[in-house]
Amino acid sequence: MTYAQTIFVAAAVLFSQAWNPALLRAGAPTDQVRQTADKVLAVLQDAGLKSPDKQKERREQLRQVIGARFDFNEMAKRSLGVHWRRGNDEEQREFVRLFTGLLEKSYADQMEAYNGEKIIYGRENMSQDQAEVETKVVTKKGENISINYKLRSVNSKDWKVYDVVIENVSIVNNFRSQFNRIMANASFADLLKKLESKSSDASAVRS
Measured on CA atoms in the order 206, 98, 32, 165, is the torsion positive or negative? Predict the structure, then answer.
């Protein structure tokens, strides 16, 4: 599965309206993922945001909804792994900013291309302050793609996504492998330059 496909199926779960009786028995993690899905759908279905000149406003609203459920700071740290400590405070903050921006743009692109794929919610597994919500995407061709959302409790009531596992492939681990290859022969500053370049290229494509 390509990076674009990975982002697509992960994004699809967050704005599906698939109903499953298991949701009635699910706990806070599943319920909060479903709440995020409802908010994303509301933005995508808002007639006042559908015109091309409203793209910036639409994407800003999507960014806010996604940001409220995803812990991009934690995802960034886990994706960088042991190399996180090689950066100073300023470099770490810049890495999180660039990493978050790239993921947000990727999600926004794929959300706007969503075409009604069916989503089925499965089991919810919890262990203290950690949880995993199992889901399955059923494509128009009848293919089944398993997607598990890993969340952690950040306070007494909120659950944040820190990783997505698609067909047994972790997004965080996938990024970590890429960053390990880069950092084997580069400095933290070099990594930031590469991310900045990717961010600039993505912006140029969309302009």
Answer: positive
